[in-house]
Amino acid sequence: MKNILIVARKEIIDVLRSKRFIALISLFIIFYIAGLSFIFTMGSENIGRRPIIFLFSNLFNSLGFIAPLIGVVIGFDAISGERERGTLKILLSQPIYRDDIVNGKILAFITVISLSILAATSISMGLFTSFINISLDDILRILLIAVFAILLSIAYYSISLFFSIHFRKTTHSALASISLWIGLTLILPILANIIAYSIVGPPPQINPGMAVQPKQRFRIFREYWNRYQAVVRSINFFSLNYHFNVIARRLLSTSIIITGRSERSIGIIDSLSQSSVNISILVVVPIIFFLLSYIIFVRKEEK
Amino acid sequence: MNIVIETENLTKIFSDRYGKVTAVDNVNLKIPEKTVTGLIGHNGAGKTTLISMLVGLILPTSGNGRVLGYDIVKESFKIREKVGLLPEGFGFYDHLTAYKNLEYIALLNHIPQEKIKNIIEEVLEEVGLKKYMHMSVKSFSRGMKQRLGIAQALLKNPDILILDEPTAGIDPEGALGFKNLIKKFVNNGKTVLISTHLLHELGDICNYAIIMKNGRVLSQGYIEDLKNRYIEEYGHVYLLKFREGEELFIKGMKDKDHIRVERRNSYIRIYSKKDVIDEINEIIKSDKILVEEIRYIKPSLEKLFLYHHFGKVVES
Fold this sequence. Notes:
The complex is a heterodimer of chains A (303) and B (316). By secondary structure, chain A is mainly alpha-helical. Chain A has helices at 2-17, 19-41, 44-47, 51-75, 80-85, 87-92, 98-129, 136-166, 170-200, 214-236, 240-252, 268-274, 276-299; strands spanning 255-258, 262-265. In chain A, strands 1-2 form a two-stranded antiparallel ribbon. The two termini of chain A are 26 Å apart. The relative contact order of chain A is 0.12. Chain B has 2 domains: 3-90 and 155-228, P-loop containing nucleotide triphosphate hydrolases (Rossmann fold), CATH 3.40.50.300; 235-310, Reverse transcriptase/Diguanylate cyclase domain (Alpha-Beta Plaits), CATH 3.30.70.
């Protein structure tokens, strides 16, 4: 355990000083500030009854984009960088178990990303409480989303770490990690829509001359939309970002309209239980990739 | 004589999609304590793979070995506690200072916090880097990094120091300092294993040698013993400087079996089987040749290596 902490301490300092991390955190802060400015320029009638939720639903969109990128950028050279610099040989020739190195790096990343996201979220909330009323329920929901953003980032880190162990060269690991990030974050959602369109076809055409009741028209469109969304969802299921977005959306949707008139409030536990599959995926993916990383790293021969 | 490193039929086969390569082939080693052992071989002889197995960086395919009594597979952690290794192709964290790099290594070796500063200063002093200890490693030359590598291996005050190609990139002055460092280390009762193919740089500090080729150990033992074995097998080399009668002497020698005579500058070099000195003296005496100087030459480590490597005497 002592060696894990020694490695983690050194890694935390390295990450916090790295230009890449500073650049990404700066970008994240810019997104936050842009989000805040956007909120202040909007009138209260456009924001709705729970402005804090409105605000954070915007901020978490940018977080869902940047948190994975931080995981990728910190993870892709975690081991391959050490290997290329020759420092891995020095490390492995010390009385240290190989899994201590991997554990130390994981612990460092979890510490850094948790502190960064929680600090950014808390500071933002702190700033907003000066202007807007915020309930305990809202605080809990926002903090929970921040925790899932951390999980999302850890999931991407675990995949990048796996690549950095599997590939001997950092360029290969970087290429694989960034391709995966671009693929899952940017390309897959577009691809999902293209595939859904090609499977389900164009929306149904109802000519103005046709005698179709508005109710029937609504049903036709709803059926079409449901089929379309089912395809999109099944393709997006392979994207970690999708699962984060689903969890965040459910946590931010505090009420549901029933039969078009009455509203029922959804508790945090309900929101979480509705997202249990998505949460499981965000938890299971890093576990799988961390395990694979351990197995490969322990068995890999460093000549 | 205590044996600190020994292996029995140690073998390492690397496999990939293109096939199998036997990097280390049934190696049986015995390295006595308090020796400076030269692990000698060309690139690809299996030296680095052998060293990597000794400290547990890679696992053997078959065979076994012990370092300081610890099994190289089951107790490699213990070995790494007591063995300082300078691996081939090592590196440092360039953005950190020499001190910070060594502090990290010291912490991993569980050196007590209150002693770390003194120990780091001590080893940096020994390798001549103390005045640069707060400089970033990024600004270090290759030779300085090499010396820092030796410093990290010395940090834990190891019982055995294993150095893989340690003088690569070191200037002549640095190489001299390195030799003095090794001598001092051995004088403290420690053992050193140096892997090298640069025999002219390290030959004079080694007193034990292991000669490798294609993953196999061709010969091993104290260098004096190896030289004597060489002499027994191949013969002596004499250098004779003449005042008079050189031509007559060469004529007298030419018809003899197992004697080869070469003229080099002002010397005649005679390669002969052992116990031929009496015959040479007989010719000198009977022909009344005036010899100014007779010198007997022992083979150098380089010559020994070439002899074992090629299976015959090769001029270096």
